[in-house]
Amino acid sequence: MPRRPHAAQADADDKDDDVEVRLEDQQRINAFGRLNGRMHDIEEDVKAKQSQYDLLDDAANEIILADDDEPIRYAFGECYLEMTKDQADEMLEKQKGAVEDEINGHKGELKKIQEQLEDLKAKLYGRFGTNINLEE
Questions:
Q1: Is residue 105 situated within a structural domain?
Q2: What is the per-residue pLDDT for 9?
Q3: Residues sharing a CB contact under 8 Å with residue 45, sequence separation 6 or more, in sequence order
C-alpha cells in the first residue's frame, strides 16, 4: 500500500504558497519598485557627477603646470574665455565645489532611499517569505 503524505503537511504546503495580496501589500510592492528605480537613477547621476568632478580636477592640475603669464582659455558653454591663471583656478574651484555639493546631496538621498527599501523588504519578506523576490 503506497504511503500518502500526511494531510496536515499537504495543507501547510498549500498555505505557504497561497498568501493573499492585500491592497496594503500591493502599495508596498509598488513603492519598492519606484524607490528601487529612483535609486538606480541616482546612482547613475552620482557616477556622471564623479566623472565631471574628475575632469575638473584634471583641468586644475593642468593649470598648475601652465606658465603664470600665459592666458588660460576657459570653456564656458560653447564659447571660450581668456583669463589669468588665478581666475581660471578660482573658477575651477567653484565648479568643483558645486559638483561636490551635488554628489553629497545625491549620496544623502541614496542613503534615505536605501533605508526605506530595507524597511519595505523586511515587511514584504515577513508577509510573503519566499513567495516574493526583492533582490537585484
A1: yes
A2: 46
A3: 106
76 against 114, higher pLDDT: 114
Question: What is the value of pTM for the model shown?
Answer: 0.76
Residue 3 forms part of a structural domain: no
Q: Is residue 115 part of a domain?
A: yes
Distance, in Å, from the CA atom of 41 to the CA atom of 39, rounded to the nearest integer, reads 5
Could you tell me the residue range of the domain that residue 70 belongs to? Answer: 24-131
Work out the number of other CB atoms within 10 angstroms of the CB of residue 55.
13
CATH no. for residue 47? 1.10.287.370
The pLDDT tens digits for 20-34 are 889 999 999 999 999
The residue among 99, 95, 69 whose CA lies nearest residue 84 is: 69
Q: Counting Cβ atoms within 10 Å, is residue 45 exposed (0-12), middle (13-18) or buried (19+)?
A: middle
